[in-house]
Each structure stands twice: as C-alpha cells, then as structure tokens.
Design a protein that fits this description.
This protein is an alpha+beta fold. It is built from four helices and eleven strands; from the N terminus they run E-E-E-E-E-E-H-H-E-E-E-E-H-H-E. Strand 8 and strand 9 form a beta hairpin. InterPro entries: ATP-dep_Prtase_HsIV_su, Ntn_hydrolases_N, Proteasome_sua/b, Proteasome_suB-type.
C-alpha cells in the first residue's frame, strides 16, 4: 500500500472529479509538506489524473501516460491499457512505486505497475493510504445525498482525513464536465 496520500475519483451525472489531499509524509512519522498537488490535467485538459506513491515516479508515469494518450488520439481506455502493459513489462518502469487514477468525462480507471487496470462499476475509485475510507464515504454520499461529483470527492477526502494520519484537509480537485 502507498502511504502519505489519498486520491478519490467520482463520476456523477455530467461531472467527473478527481481530488487529492496535500500531505507529503517522510517515513512513518514526519509530515514534510501540507499542500502538495497530486492531481494533473492531461491531454489538452480532457483527462485528469491523480497519483499515490513516490513523486518522481508519478511524474514519470504522468509523462508516459500523456504520451500514450497522444498515440491513442485521446482514447482513455486504449491509453490506460497501453500504460498498464508497458508499466508491467518494462524493466525500469516496473520498479516505479505509484498508483494512478485516470479519468475523462466517460470513464475512470485505476492503473498499477503490476498490470492491474480497474474500471469501477459505480463510477467511484480511490487509492492511497486513506483510499478505503474515502471510497466508503464517497459511496455513502453518492447514495444518500444530492451532492455533485466535485462535492462528493471533497467531502469524502475530509472524512478520510479525520481517520487516516497520512491524509490532510488541504484538498486539490479537478473537474471535467460532459
């Protein structure tokens, strides 16, 4: 499991949002930074991505993923399959320690270096040390509130930050509208 962050993606109605907390933790007990941005817009702003894991590894993966998006003409599904395949098979890439959540207006995927490519059934996905808490909160908020995707993502991270010591309330969020 990758500690020191929580990333949540929510698709609801005409909106897809990815949100992440800002905490960077060194080791088990030192907070190094409170307001890091772990969410990026890619491919002319049509795709959003978030990472959990080593920062340098995440930047490498963002660059590789954007390259795959360009090669696929912006097709998120195809680019996600290609980055998962390359990540797993490349000797250098497979040593990278990170997870990605990538999304466009239609789909959300979790991508890992071991070859997993997961599209959630309910349009909600989370990664990182507080991921399970944020996921549970987002599912409840989605089912029992009228909040939009952005609001669900932010509120679920706030809930996770009250439980997970590696997650804080310095939240950044990116939204794509259909």
């Amino acid at each position: 499991m990758f500690q020191a962050t929580t990333i949540i993606a929510v698709r609801k109605g005409q909106q897809t949002a990815i949100a992440g907390d800002g905490q960077v933790t060194l080791g088990q007990n030192t907070i190094m930074k409170q307001n890091a941005t772990k969410i990026r817009r890619l491919y002319e702003g049509k795709v959003i991505a978030g990472f959990a894991g080593a920062v340098a590894d995440a930047f490498t993966l963002f660059a590789k993923f954007e390259e795959k998006l360009k090669q696929a003409g912006g097709n998120l599904s195809k680019a996600a399959v290609e980055i998962a395949r390359e990540w797993r098979s490349d000797r250098i890439l497979r040593r990278l320690e990170a997870l990605l959540i990538v999304a466009d207006a239609e789909k959300i995927f979790i991508v890992s270096g071991s070859g997993e490519l997961i599209e959630p059934d309910d349009g909600i996905a989370a990664i990182g040390s507080g991921g399970a808490y944020a996921l549970a909160a987002a599912r409840a908020l989605n089912a029992f509130s009228e909040l939009n995707a952005r609001e669900i993502a932010v509120e679920s991270l706030k809930i996770a930050s009250g439980i997970c010591v590696y997650t804080n309330e310095q939240i950044s969020v990116e939204v794509i509208e259909k």
